[in-house]
Design brief:
Elements lengths: L2 E5 L2 E3 L5 E8 L8 E6 L6 E6 L6 E3 L7 E6 L4 E6 L8 E7 L3 E2 L3 E5 L2
Parallel strand pairs: 2-11
Antiparallel strand pairs: 1-3, 3-8, 4-5, 4-9, 5-6, 7-8, 9-10, 9-11
Amino acid sequence: QVQLVESGGGLVQPGGSLRLSCAASGFTVSSRTMGWYRQAPGKEREWVATIIPGRGTTIYADSVKGRFTISRDNAKNTLNLQMNNLKPEDTAVYYCRCGSLYWGQGTQVTVSS
């Protein structure tokens, strides 16, 4: 069955970087539209970035454009999110998503000095 497991979250200072990974099983990441979402305390879950099958076209929310990069590692069957120049407002639980049905359990990212 489809399973998504995120990792790589943690505590980082403003301006720092983190790399999140989402290990997928039950399907190949290169064949599905995959995305990252996040949910801050007291707020609704919001979309962060998407990567589309085929050419691997990427799309980003305005709030992260130029700082975050979504990518796939086909050999490892993982979805990644490189996050640079992190800001306190990036603090949230980050989730990966496959298509419209499947979600991972989330990984906490905290940006604080």
